Amino acid sequence: MNQELKRTIILENYQNPTNRGLFDDDSYIKVNMNNESCIDEINLMVKIENNVIVDIRFDGEACAICTSATSIMINTLLGKTIDEIKEIYNNYEKMINEENYNEEILEDAVVYADIAKQPNRKKCALLPWWGIKKVIDEIGK
């Protein structure tokens, strides 16, 4: 994917993020994630039915990288099983940490493949994904 397309995807997901806005519904698992080193703080609501993520919503104050990463993550994970999500998460984390990963399963999340060149932005790109991992760990208990 070329740099211009990556920028376009990031900007579109920052300006028009998927599923922004929370509501009161106890059937969702809720997590709050914040980055101590910057302003990023997001709240996630995740609905899982029959081992499949059927909805993810978010809100909060976050930079362009974190907001777009959250929106792209939502688009990537909706409709996936918990096992598929674990595999996607592991590959995303490997990509961010410059390890070998399967690019094909990451869909638009590959726009962050070069984020390691800006180490201070890695947490911004990882924060929503850590939230999903927290949800998966919670349901696995």
Radius of gyration using CA atoms only:
14 Å
Strand order across the biggest sheet? 1-2-3
Helix share bin: 40-55%
* Number of E-state strands: 3
Return the CATH topology. Sufe protein. Chain: A
Number of domains: 1
Helix count, per DSSP? 4
**Shape, principal axes of CA atoms:** globular
Low-pLDDT stretches are none
Query: Main beta sheet, described?
Result: 3 strands, antiparallel
Strand content of the residues, in percent? 15-25%
What string, H for helix and E for strand, traces the elements in order?
A: HEEEHHH
Can you describe this structure?
Helix 2 packs parallel to helix 4 (122-139). 43% of the residues lie in helices and 18% in strands. It has one domain: Sufe protein. Chain: A (Alpha-Beta Complex). The chain is of the alpha+beta class. The protein starts with a helix and ends with a helix. A three-stranded antiparallel sheet has the order 1-2-3, covered by helices on one side. It is globular and about 40 Å long. The chain has helices at residues 3-15, 64-77, 82-96, 122-139, and strands at 29-34, 41-49, 52-61.
